[in-house]
Fold this sequence. Notes:
OxRdtase_Mopterin-bd_dom; OxRdtase_Mopterin-bd_sf; 5-stranded antiparallel β-sheet; about 30% strand; Sulfite Oxidase, Chain A, domain 2; about 170 residues; 5-stranded mixed β-sheet; signal; Oxidoreductase molybdopterin-binding domain-containing protein; alpha+beta
Amino acid sequence: MLVLRCVVFVVFHGFSAALHAATPLPAPNGEVLLRVTGDIAEALQPEAAFDREMLAELGERTIETTTPWTRGKQSFTGVPLHDLLDRLGVEDGTLRVIALNDYAASVPVEDAVEDGPILAYARNGEEMTIRDKGPLWLIYPYDSDNNYRTETIFARSVWQVGHIEVDK
């Protein structure tokens, strides 16, 4: 019986995610913080645009962690990368995460795991401005696992994110 429940859950969850990704996004009402282009669900072509409210509606998570760029433990709130990619219908490939100053890092989709990185839009309860590494900062839970405390992961931790290109 347990096996049957697991199969039903997996099938339903997969169908639900596919249906969700095939639904067009509403137009942003606020300032667009993130544009996503590339190999995303056809219903979202040519680009998916998100304001802060739209990102928060995808799911919100807070990570408390230290970083190499800040002092002491910080609290970051944002959308889990996993949830964003689910909404976009992205299951594999590479993300080119691009900052407003054109700095870019390649992030494998495999990084987008439950309890993994978030696109943070708030730090210590305050909305992040461009001056404070906002509007979005790709934050990993560095303190939760030594595998997140590597130069590779630090290089993927792009701040002032404004655009993500998805490539399969």
